[in-house]
Write a structure and sequence with these properties.
4 helices, 123 residues, mainly alpha
Length: 123
C-alpha cells in the first residue's frame, strides 16, 4: 500500500503541477491583456491570488507527501490530504483537475491505511 501511495502521490503532484502552470499562465495572460487593451473584455477571476498560491503549494505538498508515504505514512498521508483539500478549495472538480485530485486523494487514503501494515524485518 505504501508503494502505491508513493507512486500515486508523486504522479498526482506532477499532474497538479501541470494544472498549476496553466492556471498561473492564464491568470497572468488575463492581467496582461486587460492592461494592454485598457478595457475589461476578459474578466480576471476574483480569487486569482488563491489560484496562483494553490497552484504552487498543493503540488509541492503532494510530491512531498508522496515521497514521505513510505518511511512516514501518517505524515505523508496528512500532507497528501491537505494537498487534495487545497486543490478542491481553489479549483473544484473539473475536466483538468479530476485526475490530480483523485490520484492524490487515493494516495492519501493508501498512505493512511498503510501505516497499520508491518514490513517484513521491521520492529
Amino acid at each position: 500500500m505504501k508503494n502505491a501511495a508513493v507512486v500515486l502521490g508523486i504522479l498526482g503532484g506532477v499532474l497538479g503541477m501541470i494544472t498549476g502552470f496553466f492556471v498561473y499562465g492564464f491568470v497572468e495572460f488575463l492581467g496582461w491583456f486587460n492592461n494592454e487593451v485598457d478595457q475589461d473584455l476578459l474578466q480576471e477571476p476574483e480569487n486569482a491570488g488563491r489560484l496562483v498560491f494553490v497552484g504552487i503549494a498543493s503540488p509541492v505538498l503532494a510530491i512531498a507527501g508522496g515521497a514521505m508515504a513510505h518511511p512516514r505514512p501518517t505524515i505523508g498521508g496528512v500532507l497528501l490530504a491537505i494537498s487534495v483539500g487545497g486543490m478542491l478549495w481553489a479549483y473544484g472538480v473539473g475536466v483538468f483537475t479530476m485526475f490530480p485530485i483523485v490520484l492524490t486523494g487515493l494516495a492519501a487514503l493508501l498512505a493512511l491505511l498503510g501505516r497499520a501494515t508491518k514490513e517484513p524485518g521491521s520492529l
